[in-house]
Amino acid sequence: MCGIAGILFPASRTPPSQDDLRGRLATMADAMAHRGPDGDGVWAADDARIGFAHRRLAIIDLSPDAAQPMRNGDGSIWVTFNGEIYNHAALRRELESSGHRFHTDHSDTEVLVHGYSEWGLVGLVERLDGMFAFAIWDTIQRRLSLARDRIGIKPLYFTRLGGVFQFASEIKSILTDPAIPRAVDTHALSHYLSFMITPAPMTLFQGIYKLPAGHVMEVEADGKACAQRYWSAVPGSSSLASSSVAGEEMLATGIRERLTAAIEKRMISDVPFGVFLSGGIDSSANVALMSEVSSRPIETFTVGFKDHTHLNELDYARQVADKFTTNHHEVLIDSADMQGYLADLAHHQDEPIADWVCVPLYFVSKLAKDSGVTVVQVGEGSDEQFCGYDSWMTYLDFHRKFWRPYTSMVPKLLRRGIGSLAKSWTPTTRGAGAQGAEALLRAGRGQELFWSGANAFWNVHKERVLSNLGRASDLSDIVDMGLDLYGLGSWDSGDVAGGYFAAFDREHPNCDVLTRMIHAEFRLRLPELLLMRVDKVTMSTSVEGRVPFLDHALVEYTMDIPMADKIRGGVKKHILKRAVEGLIPNQILHRPKMGFAAPVAEWLRGDFGAEAERSVLASPLVNGGGLNKTYISRLFDEHRRHGADHALHLWTLHNLTAWHDHWIS
Fold first, then answer.
1. Are the CB atoms for 109 and 66 separated by under 8 Å?
2. Quick one: which of 76, 476, 539, 580 is 20 to 30 A from 292 by CA?
3. CB distance 299 to 327 below 8 Å
4. Which residues are identified as catalytic?
5. Structural contact between residues 212 and 201, judged by C-beta atoms closer than 8 angstroms
6. How many other β-carbons are positioned within 10 Å of the β-carbon of residue 150?
7. How far is CA 7 from CA 136, 219, 539, in A?
8. SS3 category, 330
9. Rounded to an integer, what distance in angstroms lies between the CA atom of residue 391 and that of residue 411?
10. 522-557: per-residue pLDDT in tens?
11. Rounded alpha-carbon distances, angstroms, from residue 575 to 355, 382, 499
12. The whole model's pTM is what?
């Protein structure tokens, strides 16, 4: 796991001197030293038109020979790479049989330069099994190639100013260039309030973008860029697609086999590894399967709360740790710990990720690093594939009982009028009344019922908190790149979600409701919120997080499992529970899901709430910047007096204004 960066000067621009370019690249690398404390390197072409930077977190092949940026034997291909390639040994053998000569002992990075030479960019990424973001410069073709892994586990940001193309693992690296403007993208801000993160390829910074998951991009020497999608989470990619009969036992066995392989391959490491353990199904299965193949006790890490113990899962985690005889570590935090961390959070996130799980995740990541562990396995992606959320069950039930008959029987014009009336009657809370009003509004606008599993401000609320955001976003920088821009130029985030569903339905008509929801999560919430919180927070402590439930072979398999097998008898994650039955204790397998949370609602009613209110209401975004100060003040007041629970809205606003204070104003 590492940090990468680079600059390309097109033929129309005069490049700097080679020394100046190397200096700029070194500055970009230094801005993300936390991603790679084990080494750094820069490479600049002789003509100084292209250069790469790298910060190294050494995990596979710790020798100096595996340092980056790395070249092939004749120097015609250069690479800077962030991630891990789990099948690198098999790819190396295949390439060696074709005549390629390797110079490192077992570096997965070297597979990229030889694989690109042998198979080309798309041929290479289609063969890779792992998580990655990398850049390759082909000196013969004079072409820069960028790639992000299928699921979006690793980030990659880019900008093009005056024709100069820059990229990096983190936005802060790009912002080391003083010529890059620091301005808010107004449409991205609107979508952030809805989704708690900005949808790719947007970021909250005007003119700075992120390469979407499952994409490659090629940038020619003249600066012209073209992107394409090479993978998507859709049905029809696995062996199940051609199977006419798939019994429950067969499905459970298929999941178990693929999960076992995914976990085992993610134990490949030349440094100590462990697992974050909550005591739920996902993390417990991680521990159990790791224990089966490990010759030493697994290192497990759990976080809890000193001040609000009702959220703790410590006892469940201890049960699992005892059963599998792990070396178990715990850390307890409270409001003071959280407040002491917030400034660092705004810095390391680059753009706000309005998920309070980032707070406990930081402290458990730091615990792992302080305990000598550099690689951890985490459980992200299981709930999305197997329907592990109560909120999803509510959506599915509502869709069956109300949404489908209402939208099919009530005329569009009448639905539109009902939706407008419902919006005007909506309370400020996120309760059942507001949820019903939002559903009526979406039906009236012809939108999807489900947008995302992370939906902070529904439109019935967002249109009250937003007053005047000023000018619309300018997407002209990327409109010719071939990227999906579904609804991104609209103020209504329902147009973004609707774009995902419409594209999916065109290619895969008549899929069940749950499959459509899961695909939408792989387009937005998983890569840009859940996986970015893992990447940004763990890497801020120089720890690498690996996600076995998001192994692409497992994802392709589960995308072909119908809703009826994932949910049976009202039981969430039914087929996953069958797959790990007998592997983990029954009291863990069948206990109610708590979720990895933080007591933010309670913290906002204490000292932190007063501090958050002062900082939010003082923000330039609130004072003339487009956010409604009167409405926000009312939210704080109602929450403080226990009149309503506005924690999600207030945390989303606090993250936004803290980001603006840190990076913009």
1. yes
2. 539
3. yes
4. 2
5. yes
6. 27
7. 12, 11, 23
8. strand
9. 28
10. 999 999 999 999 999 999 999 999 999 999 999 999
11. 28, 11, 30
12. 0.96
